[in-house]
Specification:
Length: 358
Amino acid sequence: MKKLKKINPQQMQLLESQATTILHFTGHMYGLGALALNHLACARISQLKERSDKGFIILLPDISWLKRYKLRVKPNYIKVTEQFWPGNVTMIVEDSEDIFSHISLNGKLAVHVPDEPDLREFLRDLDQPIVSTSINISGEPAINDLKTIKKHKWFDFAFLPKHVPKQIEDAEPSTIIDLTQEQPKIIRSGRFDLSDFTRAVNAPKIVFVCTANICRSPMAEYIARQIVEKENLSYRIGSAGFLQGGVMISENSYLVLKEHGYAAEEHVSTQLNKELVDDCWLILTMTTEHKERLQKMDQNIGNKLFTLSEFTGYQLDIEDPYGLEISFYRQTFIAIEKRVREMFIVLENNKNPIREGV
């Protein structure tokens, strides 16, 4: 078993022409893989696992590869892929042109964009998807001890990031959801349940972010909430910040919102956390610094994160008026209102950057 870092032409030829297998780490457990379009290698994996069915999960580095391989997602489920990928969620979609007929079932294919950044980069280096399955004889528990795995000698190559533990105590299989029907259906339970996906379909969540969630992001939240209510739009709206929650809105933000007819006296700040990020379809920050800070907190925040300005075609960040005179808050309100209204125009015209390439 040879360790892989970057693929050289000779290794690539072996992966493409022979029944060559790859040991990898999905971010939650070890996986047995091979190039998804290599029929011989996929058949070898079935033989090693002593399984008769041909259904496999394939790994893609990002959602744009759905289009690349003609994998069809129903339009009403697009937001589900945008919200939950990268992540520990496998989605069953339509193999519309039978490109993967050797590993799909009845024209359906299980697809996963892993939340292990190094694995996604490895897939880009391969420039092909791989199949991924647990390391075990079919029906037996998955093996997640590296020493035991190596004894099986099932692998020709290994791609394992340095941070991977030698033994995974709490391996977490992905949630599997079928998106080929009129209603989403959970096939295998995991971290997410059906209600999470139903909300993503029926009312995707947009959250505005600033430092403390007491000045700028509450303004954006109340402006957006009113537009959603007046236009009867199917979005959930929220706001959050990096600092500890439970703080009332700043006095000047409250007064400026009141001047424009918004009652914000009950607003209490919310601190960003993993659960909130997972529940969001779109996160819009007030500054580039906020965006970069979130990217450092969560490498898998994926396609859902933008500054409010870049999402709506503006150049300048929205700076913090905290501690300044109320005139600065009024200027901030005007800047935020312009961008929030433009945001809904962008969404209405389906030109949002989330969907680029899909």
